[in-house]
Design brief:
The structure is a single chain. The protein has helices at 21-30, 61-73; strands at residues 3-11, 40-44, 51-58, 86-94. By secondary structure, it is of the alpha+beta class. It has a single domain (3-94), classed as Alpha-Beta Plaits, CATH 3.30.70.100. The protein has a four-stranded antiparallel beta sheet. Strand 2 and strand 3 form a beta hairpin. The longest helix is centred in the middle third of the chain and has 13 residues, at 61-73. It is globular, with a radius of gyration of 14 Å.
Length: 103
């Protein structure tokens, strides 16, 4: 693994709460061998907005761009009809430090 990309999606606050199930259902196709695995997926309801955090490992930024482009073009990502649930999206790329066990 060369890097980790985190994506934090802040969801629109609604009653009833937004459905994280769309992300769960989309992970099957998105994590197929043709794309990339997922390292972790979290859902939080504390604070001002419900949020989903997903962490994806990649060998390089080039691989991340290629997988993202292909998964969008082929309809594997983002989750179907998820746009109305999104208020903000944040994406960060992390490189493991030399002493990291994830290196």
């Amino acid at each position: 693994m060369g890097l980790l990309r985190t994506a934090r999606d802040e969801l629109v606050a609604r009653r009833p709460a937004a459905d994280p199930g769309r992300w769960r259902r989309a992970l099957g196709p998105r994590t197929a061998p043709a794309y990339s695995p997922i390292c972790a997926a979290f859902y939080a309801t504390s604070g001002s907005l419900p949020r989903i955090l997903h962490i994806w490992p990649y060998r390089s930024l080039e691989q991340r761009l290629e997988v993202r482009t292909r998964s969008v073009n082929e309809g594997a990502w983002p989750p179907e009809n998820s746009t109305p649930q999104l208020k903000r999206m944040h994406s960060t790329v992390y490189l493991p430090m030399a002493f990291s066990p994830l290196k």
